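tokens incoming
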């Protein structure tokens, strides 16, 4: 196997004496999607917030492409080419796709004015790569469908050189067609060697979108399995019973 893009080793964090994440180790390879599953409060989001810089671990180590990483805040995470796409997508509804793509990082002309045409040209280029069917470049993102909004958020992360993407329930509240659009986007990202941690409650989506799944319960890792080796029921029993398929027999 290649060097993992991400290794989180023996991660721990507690809040008020409660062990939210208790000695958890997971990894992620280039071009791979690893699903993180578990009930609310299982610790999956907390684990990933230590990677995104939102929380600092009490103990444990993070390695990015084999090198020990020092991630104390979201700016550090971005320096390691880690981008998070939250369920809310963090888009400015009144702005178009290009303005959202470059929000806070606008391209400017030699005279210091915002270069709208250059931003639109760059947006068309990356959208052509990720979602060739995207055509609504002049519409505010509030007028876009859920899948189109998701593609704007993904394009923003990828344009700024994300190698590691954290996606929080990317298909929540989307219909079948939109869900398929997101699945195609994820396939495209995998083909480009980007690694994705996908946080989800939906076992079926994890079975459809992921290569491996890591299941957490009560802050601990139940286990990590290859999707090809398990059934929906195996994953459910890991979530509910906290047992690996081999143990549950």
């Amino acid at each position: 196997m290649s060097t993992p893009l991400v290794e989180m080793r023996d991660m721990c964090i507690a809040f008020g004496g409660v062990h939210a994440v208790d000695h958890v180790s997971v990894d992620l390879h280039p071009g791979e999607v690893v699903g993180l599953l578990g009930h609310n409060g299982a610790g999956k989001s907390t684990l990933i917030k230590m990677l995104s810089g939102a929380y600092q671990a009490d103990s444990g180590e993070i390695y990015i492409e084999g090198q020990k990483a020092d991630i104390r805040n979201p700016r550090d995470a971005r320096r390691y080419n880690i981008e998070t796409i939250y369920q809310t997508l963090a888009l400015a509804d009144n702005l178009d796709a290009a303005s959202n793509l470059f929000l806070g990082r606008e391209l400017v002309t030699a005279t210091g004015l915002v270069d709208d045409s250059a931003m639109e040209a760059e947006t068309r280029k990356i959208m052509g790569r990720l979602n060739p069917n995207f055509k609504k470049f002049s519409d505010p993102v509030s007028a876009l469908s859920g899948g189109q909004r998701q593609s704007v958020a993904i394009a923003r992360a990828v344009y700024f050189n994300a190698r590691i993407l954290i996606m929080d329930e990317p298909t929540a509240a989307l219909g079948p067609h939109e869900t398929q659009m997101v699945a195609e986007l994820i396939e495209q990202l995998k083909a480009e060697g980007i690694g994705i941690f996908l946080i989800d409650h939906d076992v079926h989506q994890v079975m459809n979108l992921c290569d491996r799944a890591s299941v957490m319960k009560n802050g601990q890792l139940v286990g990590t399995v290859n999707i090809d080796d398990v059934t929906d029921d195996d994953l459910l029993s890991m979530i509910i019973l906290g047992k690996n398929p081999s143990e549950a027999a």
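note: The chain has two domains: 1-81+163-249, 93-161.
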